[in-house]
Each structure stands twice: as C-alpha cells, then as structure tokens.
Amino acid sequence: xxxxxxxxxxxxxxxxxxxxxxxxxxxxxxxxxxxxxxxxxxxxxxxxxxxxxxxxxxxxxxxxxxxxxxxxxxxxxxxxxxxxxxxxxxxxxxxxxxxxxxxxxxxxxxxxxxxxxxxxxxxxxxxxxxxxxxxxxxxxxxxxxxxx
Length: 148
Ligand code: IDP
Ligand code: MG
Hints:
- By secondary structure, this protein is an alpha+beta fold.
- The protein contains seven helices and four strands, in the order E-H-H-E-H-H-E-H-H-E-H.
- It has a single domain, classed as Nucleoside diphosphate kinase-like domain (Alpha-Beta Plaits, 2-Layer Sandwich).
- It is about 40% helix and about 20% strand.
- It has a four-stranded antiparallel beta sheet with strand order 2-3-1-4.
- The termini are close together.
- Bound molecules: inosine-5'-diphosphate and magnesium ion (MG).
- Inosine-5'-diphosphate binds near residues 61, 110 and 115.
C-alpha cells in the first residue's frame, strides 16, 4: 500500500477547514496511519520545499508555512499519492476544478490549503521529515475489505 504525506496548511487550520479536508480524504477510503499538529520552523520548511529554492515565491512560501501551526498526516491506501493529488486539485485554486479541495475552498495560489506528495519517492522523503518510523501506526481496518 502506498503512503503519502499530507499537510493541512496554516490557512486551512486558521479557517477551520481541517476537519472538512481530513473528512474528504478519509471518506474516499484512505487510512490515517500518523498525524500530528506542529508549528514548522524555517529549517524544516526549507528542507520540505527544497525543490523550490531560488524560485520567486520561495521566501513567501517559507514565511507562510511557518506562520501558524499545521497538521501533518500520513495517509495510506492503494494509489494514495495519485488519489490525494486528484482530491486536492490543481496548485492554483483559481484553476482547480470544483469538487476538489482547492477548487472548493481556495482563491489564491499562495493560500491553497493542502500539500500532498507528488510522487512515491517524494512521499517517502517527506514522511521521514515529519515522522519517525515508530510514529507510523500499523493496524487493520475491517472496512478495507469493502473498499478494495
Ligand atoms: P503543489 O503544492 O500543488 O505540489 P508546487 O508547485 O509543488 O505545488 O508548489 C508548492 C507550493 O508553493 C504550492 O502549494 C503553493 O503553496 C506555493 N506556490 C507555488 N507556485 C506559487 C506561485 O506562483 N506563487 C505563490 N506561491 C506558489
Ligand atoms: Mg509540490
């Protein structure tokens, strides 16, 4: 089963949308295997967004993601990475389809509510940034037999 890192970003927490966003991912059938609330520091933000270093929005992005607490979650499921990206919608909420999280709740690219890993390889790296191996829970859900 794939795992993906999701961040309920500071704007979503501040707007009281954390429950709504978690609900959508959970309802889809994905399983929560780790979750924590934290206030990211600059060092972690720069590591998490290292691929964007040097881009014009990088400093604003680091300032935003460290401005207020967020919720980090590891979701597990078949094709979890791709499924979460579909549920999130395009990076720019103005262009994201309605029915997606960004399309339904966002307007501005800098306030797009959610992060989800964009590949299996990046998911693994990102999960390791936020969680130790012991923090990832292993458990069975009876209902998975009705999802897969
Ligand atoms: P993603 O979150 O859909 O994977 P990325 O291209 O990886 O999008 O960008 C990471 C984050 O950087 C975005 O979610 C958004 O918060 C921010 N970002 C991306 N492009 C811009 C931009 O042009 N202006 C401001 N912020 C941006
Ligand atoms: Mg990305």
